[in-house]
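[09:14] KT: can someone run the structure on this one? pasting the chain below
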Amino acid sequence: MDRRLVDDHGAALMAVSYEHESLLELFRRRETLAVELLTGSLGVEVPSWSEVRVTEGDLGQIDPVETRADLVLLLDENGKAVFGIVVEVQLAKNAEKLFRWPLYAATLRVRHACPVAVLVVTPDRTVAEWAKKPIALGSGNTYSVAVLGPDAVPRIETPDVPVELALLSAKAHGETDEGLIVVENALRCVMQLDADERSDYHDLLWAWLSPAIREKVSEMLEQHFPYPQSDFAKEHYGKGLREGEAQLLLRLLTHRFGELPAEVETRVRAADDGSLQRWGVRLLDATSLDAVFADD
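[09:31] RB: done, structure tokens below
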């Protein structure tokens, strides 16, 4: 097989994995984000609640690997679950999900004896329209998920919002005709964070932007933070996409396998694009940290 085809396939899988995990990262970091979008953008009514908690994502009994949802949240009131939310990031149409989403809802509903919503998050308008269609269950019954496509994400142009919402808005609207103002606002939200969080959120946003938008953002930053004198510009906007991919890969490895040895972190940060793509693809199926770096 042509090595270029293999490399292109690996790069494509890495890009899909990166986009999926980086979108999901926003909902993991701000556990109330799913509730805010369900109620504010999609008009879903939820009972009174006082706490949001992440719960077990295994929503199947027979095949737990294939029935693991992306993220499962419970809204609690006085220590009792009153509403469940299954967050699913969907980048492409997948007919199998039309069978799994009703299963997720039914399993979580039975497990916690409360109403449930499946929230499908997608940056693709075609996928959003596909996911909105009622799912036929048989005997005239249907099930519908709540879909947060790009058109349902609010256009945020003020920094006085949670940074996760600002980044999601930049993801949804950044490539539109007047999207630069949304991206600029997201950057201002990021700049208000402490150093560690600022770096993480910068990496997520920077990796989402197309080369054309990144160039416009860089030009804007040179005006506001004269390059190369600005330490902020040096630290965050001179490092490019590769560093963002390395940072996310480290977070994914840590999430999957726990605290990483120092040599692994050093190796990932120093890796070239090809190695990052190769390891990212292996991470999809790897059962151990050694398996990710096998044969390298």
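[09:33] KT: thanks! Residues 95 and 208 are 26 Å apart (CA to CA).
[09:34] RB: yep, looked fine to me
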